[in-house]
Amino acid sequence: MKILDVYIIKKFLGTFFFVVLLLVAVVSVIDYTEKNDDFMEHQLNAMQIMAYYVDFIPYVASLITPITVFIAVVFVTSKLAGNTEIIAILSSGVSFRRMLVPYMIGALFIAAISFWLNGWVIPNANKDRIAFELKYVKSPFDYSERNIHMKISPEAYAYMESYNNNADVGYRFTLEKIEGNQMLEKITARRIEWDSATSKWRLRQWKKHVFNGMDESINTGDEMDTTLNIHPKDFGSTYGMYETLTLPELNSHIEILKERGANDIPLYRVEKYIRYMSPFTAIILTFIGVIMSAKKARGGSGFQIALGFGIAFLFIIFFIFSRSIAEANSMNPIIAVWIPNIIFTGVGVILYKFVPR
């Protein structure tokens, strides 16, 4: 690695981390202002609030990474161009393509760190952040769905007319075991209650039907403890849940939702695809940023920096739009999630071929 590469990488990464810290500080102050009433209402002390923001800051930093990468590239490159450093670099025999190398190295470093953080570190931090917000910021959650159907194993299907998540009690419960087209067993209960001491479900006023061909046996009772592949958290708030799952946990959760025939599978699939897509965003926006800001502007770098902000926010609009399409399942989610990167890659290629460098 040459001195020039080290020089550009230091400027790029240094500016990137500075912009991240600056924007995170601004967002944190705004967030604190909005939530201060909730903090005061629950009489939270400084340590509790600081612990929340320790988890909140990485989350925000991850969200703004595409913007900050692009802004940092435009700022650094336009400054180099304004000081005629790029002209000197190109005049020394270094090609524009070769000058892109240190930028790409910096972008790859950011992309790798971003993938690791988004895949494993930030989801674990989000577990505490989301739990804090549900407890102190959000309104109390009441499970309101009725006629709940769940597939809890390859051959077992559960039904509840309703569920009270505050008391962890389900009403009009049915559990059916079906093999092929034949029902082997059916259990019904007036109520089903969660026993936290034994981590089991307790059936009240139950009736069990066992089928053997044309024969049927029936047993009844007042109470029966049983273990089911259902947990009270399955009826809790799903607010931000996809943000709390690491990549392995996300894959496992998607498989569980498939088995149960859940309706919100696209939400988790989209989150998974975005985590794989995001690192490439840093590389693409770095490429575009260097091309569009490498030419010296007469009026200084102000216009180029402003244009950089504009393109970064245009990318966000495309990202939000494509995510909505993917979550609505109106297009292949992989294609929908990659729409912003595909479009901006095309923009980058056009700029590289036709814009004077």
Can you tell me about this structure?
There is one protein chain. Helix content is 60%, strand content 19%. With 357 residues, the protein is an alpha+beta fold. A hairpin with a 4-residue loop joins strand 4 and strand 5. Helix 1 packs parallel to helix 4, helix 4 runs antiparallel to helix 6 and helix 5 runs antiparallel to helix 6. The longest helix is centred in the N-terminal third of the chain and has 41 residues. The protein starts with a helix and ends with a helix.
Contiguous uncertain segments of 5+ residues: none
Shape: elongated
N-to-C SSE string, H for helix and E for strand? HHHHEEEEEEHHHH
Q: Using only CA atoms, what is the Rg?
A: 27 Å
Count, helices: 8
Strand order of the largest sheet: 1-2-3-4-5-6
Please, what is the average pLDDT? 91
Share in helix: 55-70%
Tell me the total number of β-strands: 6
Count structural domains: 2
Task: Outline the secondary-structure elements.
Layout: H1 3-41, H2 46-82, H3 85-91, H4 96-136, E1 146-153, E2 156-164, E3 169-179, E4 182-195, E5 200-212, E6 215-226, H5 247-260, H6 265-293, H7 302-327, H8 333-354
Antiparallel strand pairs: 1-2, 2-3, 3-4, 4-5, 5-6
Characteristics:
357 residues; alpha+beta; 8 helices; elongated
What is this structure, in a nutshell?
The protein has 357 residues and is α+β, with helices and mostly antiparallel strands. It has helices spanning 3-41, 46-82, 85-91, 96-136, 247-260, 265-293, 302-327, 333-354; strands at residues 146-153, 156-164, 169-179, 182-195, 200-212, 215-226.
